[in-house]
# Entry
Amino acid sequence: MKKIIMASLVAVLMIPSLAFASDNSTSSNTLLTDVNIQEVKKTEDNEIKVIEKKSNIVEVEQRTLDTSNAININTKKEMEEKLVNPLKTNRMQSEDSQISSYSLSPDLVYTDLITEEGQVNAYEYTVTSPGKLTVYLETIASTSVDYNLHVFKLNESTNELEEQVSSTYGPGVHEQISKIVEVGTYYILVQSVQGFDAVNPYAFIIKHSATYSENEPNDNIWQANSYTNTLYTRDTIDNGFDTDWSYLNITSSKELIVNMRSLSSNYQIDFFDTNLNYLLTLNPNVNYSINFPAGQYLIRITPLSTDTLNQEYVFSVQEPVTSTANATITSITSDGGVQGKVDYGYGRYWRIKSNITVNGQLKNANGTLAKNAPVTVAVVRTINNTVHSNTGYTDGSGNFSISINNIGPAAGNYSFYNISSTHYYDIIPLLVFSGNNEVNSSESILYHFAYSMYN
Ligand SMILES: [Ca+2]
Ligand SMILES: [Ca+2]
# Structure
């Protein structure tokens, strides 16, 4: 039996706190400071290793996986459905140390047992291309059994295990780790910190995402991105197990608008307090007005279907936009060769024809940017008094760009005598709304060009 000795590795796994890390980072590397990995040898082949605790010595034995019943899983939901009886999925042959090498693969569900408190099971996983690593551990449904999940990387030059990332929720809570990884050898460790279940296995899956958002890794509460009072984020779901956590500190009670916009509606938005007590669930593509007590909130966005994959979504918690908000129109493009500001004798206004794009920026009365806020721009054509409007959303800088097409012809009720020609036009209103509130606009009048005639 081949053995690898790693002294004090168990000590590394004594993650000190289950409380939310206020510094918003995993920073688990510091846990390795006092640990001296005396000897780490790679075996000649990539084999599954199971670590067993013997006082201060951790022995790593070779084991392998029975993949005869391996199941491909695309989403967490599928895994839940297929793991009704996990014993029917592939099991590790935990007693057999003679079986040949095996390398973990992404997308397959593995199950294994812990048979004594404090046991650590370790699995080697080779990353063959850079990307985002996600490991999801479905733990035992028990209030007295607590397993945690850790990822180490083997430093090939020093033979030391480093770059620890941990997920250390309490009993009965599934664990999840995300990590941006380079090519190399990683170790996934499942550790019993309290109790064990020698009959019911835990299950885990590895996902590899070649592309991912700049907000990653943010798959657990220790990796949540931090915000104060308001939040605006653009993110993607990069695999079916991806979850996106945010941490929002609201310093005084206030009404806020919560809005997640996405092409797919197959997401779930959950709010928790920092003790992970569930507070509420919201749906995407709905504007919610919520009175938040002052406090700290953990927010989780979970995909419910693979049609969310790699689709950008925008999620925000923002102050409501009121009628005191100010829209600054920066430009209005138009077809018909009439684009630009002119003065036909009633002031200098943007001239338009039938198809226009109104560009501007929306700010709240206190000067803060109105982010992810609905903006409706409307013009009223003189002929038949028809309203033409369209709605969009501001971006993270409060900017909007709203196109209105097929406004149609102007009546030409007004005329402007030029030296060579006479221009006929209408004077029409431009209105800007956010939701149901009309806001102040830097431009409220347009010249709607009809035609010109040579004098
Ligand atoms: Ca745990
Ligand atoms: Ca994520």
About this structure: The chain has three domains: 4-209, 224-318, 326-454. The first helix runs from residue 9 to 12. The pocket of calcium ion (ligand 2) is lined by residues 178, 216, 218-219, 242-244 (CB under 6 Å). The domain at 4-209 is CATH 2.60.120.380 (Jelly Rolls).
